[in-house]
Amino acid sequence: MKALLLVGIGGGIGSIMRYLTTVLISRYSSSLFPWATYSANLLGCLLIGLFIGILERQQVLSSDLKLLLITGFCGGYTTFSAFANENMTLIQSGHTFTALLYIAVSVLSGILAVYGGMLIAKSI
């Protein structure tokens, strides 16, 4: 029961932050490229790398923090289902190149962001 509460609290906060990210980025972008989802996914990758790196560096073995921050918060914040849906929409509307670019850039920069988060965690 405790694990469910930790994941739920983290996920709720992550979902709220995801919504606020969309609101903020949508104010400044009106392009075809889905910048809000891309930004949330990239920041989520950076944060998961940072959280993992800090927890490992501090030798925190607490599964509670992992459930709250990684499974809950990052799971609620990142938006892979929205990412998949946006790509399907782009493909169905004839923007296949934009979809392929979005997929490639998201995957590569996401991996780099996780690595970056881990590097940042090592330096603090």
UniProtKB/TrEMBL annotation:
It is found in: Cell membrane. The keyword Flavoprotein does not apply. Keywords: Cell inner membrane, Cell membrane, Ion channel, Ion transport, Membrane, Metal-binding, Sodium, Transmembrane, Transmembrane helix, Transport. Pfam families: CRCB. Its main location: membrane. The keyword Transmembrane applies. Na(+) is not transported, but it plays an essential structural role and its presence is essential for fluoride channel function. This is Fluoride-specific ion channel FluC. The gene is crcB.
